[in-house]
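Notebook, student rotation project (T.W.).
Task set for the rotation: take a protein with a known small-molecule partner, predict the structure of the complex, and write up what can be learned from the model alone. Partner molecule chosen: nicotinamide-adenine-dinucleotide. Sequence and SMILES entered below by T.W., checked by me.
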Amino acid sequence: MEVGLIGCGGMGTTHNLSLKALSSRMDVDVTSLADCRPEFLHKAVKQWPKARLYKTGMDLLKHESPSSVHICLPSYLHTKHAVAAMDKGINVLVEKPVCLTEKETEEILEAKKRNHVQVMVGQVVRFFSEYRYLKECYDTGKYGKLKSLTMQRISGDTDWGYEDWFHQEEKSGSVVLDLHVHDLDFLRYMLGEPNSFDVRATAFSSGLVNQIFTTYEFGDTFAVTEGIWDTSTAVPFEASFHACFDDASIVFNSQNENCLAVYKKDGTIEYPKLTREYDVKDDSSGINISNLGPYYTEIKYFIQCLQSGKEIEIAPLEEGIKSVRQGIKELKKAKDYISNR
Ligand SMILES: NC(=O)c1ccc[n+]([C@@H]2O[C@H](COP(=O)([O-])OP(=O)(O)OC[C@H]3O[C@@H](n4cnc5c(N)ncnc54)[C@H](O)[C@@H]3O)[C@@H](O)[C@H]2O)c1
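Predicted structure of the complex:
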């Protein structure tokens, strides 16, 4: 199966390494690559020496017709490329956030409607084994009712983006659509749409929102989230959750050696042994991601859906769009809160 990779920066490298690992056990071959920075293109082509190279994503889409493209461009370029790919009958895996504005959500949905293609959004938290474990406990009611859920996603300030795109709200959607969207998407995946939500936020001196706290009500469960790009780039990346069920609390912290623990009502502690189908760490993307496992699982799922003709159920376009719409509302509230202080 021919694949085109558009954008070979931080996330593009993660996709590229995962695709390479998958190619030893699946019919998948990256036959075209695009990046406007030659050094990134030359690094990517080392994995696929026969791939055809393009300076821009639109050039690749003009000349190539792979079965699918992975769009790993800065977020403000997702819509244009996803629509062009769909209009050529190419299946799409687009990184999160799928897009940034209401207008773009409509453009992308329209393009999907007029083409027979599959589109998946890289809401990768849906593929993390610890978050899957939490959802399984919730779905089966293993520990009773979920009373509350706290989630945090802490990152140092981003320092790697092409032309500093992360720091421009119209290009990244700020920390809200770029980072916090992971947790809000997972909440929606597990608990459905919130009945209500409220926001507190802070901004960098430039005015760009850099920290958001959101409290949500989902029926009789409430959730609190924090997403932050800290002022220092040195702050280590950390994702965590604390889920309080009637009979146990499930606690995850990506920084801990025993990162997932179940503290039961009877005082015992269990460390669930989760299967990790690909347990490889690689820091060569140059961003705050080293664990390739969940990306491998996500991309494998996408390819399996395409090759078997199965509908994408875990992170289809429509779900990514709903998370963006919720994120847009939260960003508006965050800006209102900051400007009224
Ligand atoms: N799923 C995750 O965990 C995760 C993590 C980080 C980033 N992301 C998402 O991945 C996307 C990319 O982020 P990143 O961190 O890789 O950014 P990046 O700036 O490191 O990479 C983007 C790449 O696109 C290239 N590029 C820019 N314009 C281009 C064009 N017109 N044609 C071809 N190449 C072009 C740049 O040269 C750069 O190499 C964003 O949407 C981001 O939100 C997802």
